[in-house]
Amino acid sequence: MRKMTEENLNSAFAGESKAHMRYLIFAECAQKEGKPNISRLFRAIAFAEQVHATNHLKVLEEVDSTTRNLEAAISGENFEVDETYPSYLEVARLQAEKGAQRSMNFALQAEKIHSAMYQKAGQQADEGKDILLKDIYICSVCGYTIEGEPPQTCPVCGATKDKFKKF
Predict the structure, then answer these.
(1) How remote is the C-alpha of 55 from its chain's centroid?
(2) The CATH number of 134-167 is which of 2.60.40.10, 2.20.28.10, 3.60.15.10, 3.40.50.300?
(3) How far apart are CA 46 and CA 34, in angstroms?
(4) Strands (E), the chain
(5) Are 70 and 121 in contact (CB under 8 A)?
(6) pLDDT tens track, the chain, 167 positions
(7) I need a labelling partner for 163 at 20 to 30 A (CA). Which of 10, 115, 126, 142 fits?
(8) Which residues contact 105 (CB under 8 A, 6 or more apart)?
């Protein structure tokens, strides 16, 4: 693929991915405000943006076997842990942006867990197996992730057990 087209597809993927998430967040807001149809509209269009992002990623040939996808996921999580969030956190500290520091620290702590979970899955996938997996709980405040029962309070942000979402 020619470089400019590849760059454009990557940019389009990022934009569609961002729109997908933005619209899901907007849908939650509309739902909380008692506007279920506007919420549904946001969710529907968020799905369309996901379709667009998926198409772009496939054309970029970045969707592969589960084993290769896990390798890519581990690499991405480790990059966030080792480089992205530490540098973003440092800038936020230098600029005394407390909200940004908190948000980025939340993400950094969760990304460490995600990498370990993907590595565990990758070991099994390498052997042609699926993983044995208990319920996964995600803290809806900070993204802390745990397999099995959630703690009474989140070890990262202090949210109570009822703030965890089960997967």
Answers:
(1) 19
(2) 2.20.28.10
(3) 19
(4) 136-139, 145-147, 164-166
(5) yes
(6) 999 999 999 999 999 999 999 999 999 999 999 999 999 999 999 999 999 999 999 999 999 999 999 999 999 999 999 999 999 999 999 999 999 999 999 999 999 999 999 999 999 999 999 999 999 999 999 999 999 999 999 999 999 999 999 99
(7) 115
(8) 85, 89, 156
Q: Six-digit token pair at 12?
A: 């389009």
Q: Which long-range contacts (CB under 8 A, 24 or more apart) does 66-71 make?
A: 66/125, 67/122, 67/125, 67/126, 70/118, 70/121, 70/122, 70/125, 71/122
Site of tokens 């149809």 = 37
**Hey, what are 59's tokens?**
């054309």
- Distance, in Å, from the CA atom of 16 to the CA atom of 71, rounded to the nearest integer, reads 23
